């Protein structure tokens, strides 16, 4: 986690967060990253059904990411960020995009942060 790297760098130089007027952080109390396996065996009918269930905003995001990928070099490294309030379907959107992108990408890394800081 980035905060652990920052704390280690501060310690290396003889400092901590309080050296800069910041509160100390108990790293053990922070939510830990969770690796969620993604099913890379794509059931095309299921994915198309999910696309049909997407609302207008979700469909726009799905289409924009896929269109950009197909119009540009799909083998070039790219990053996409989906942000929004809880319950807006971010996980739903990225799972659809991931299902399509697995067809084109040799390496696909998905990172999802959820929870409170």
In short:
The chain has four helices and no strands.
Give the overall form. Answer: elongated
Count of structural domains: 2
- Kindly, what is the distance between the CA atoms of the first and last residues, rounded to a whole number of angstroms? 13 Å
- In percent terms, what proportion of residues is strand? under 5%
Tell me the total number of β-strands.
Answer: 0
The run of helices and strands is HHHH
Rounded radius of gyration (Å): 19 Å
Average pLDDT figure: 78
- Structural classification: mainly alpha
Q: Can you summarize the main beta sheet?
A: none
Provide the low-confidence segments as ranges.
none
**Tally of separate helices:** 4
Helix content: 40-55%
Walkthrough of the structure:
This protein is an all-alpha fold. The chain folds into two domains: about 1-30; about 35-115, no CATH class. The protein is about 40% helix and about 0% strand. It is built from four helices and no strands. The protein has helices at about 1-10, 45-55, 55-70, 90-100. Helix 3 runs parallel beside helix 4 (about 90-100). The protein is elongated and about 55 Å long.
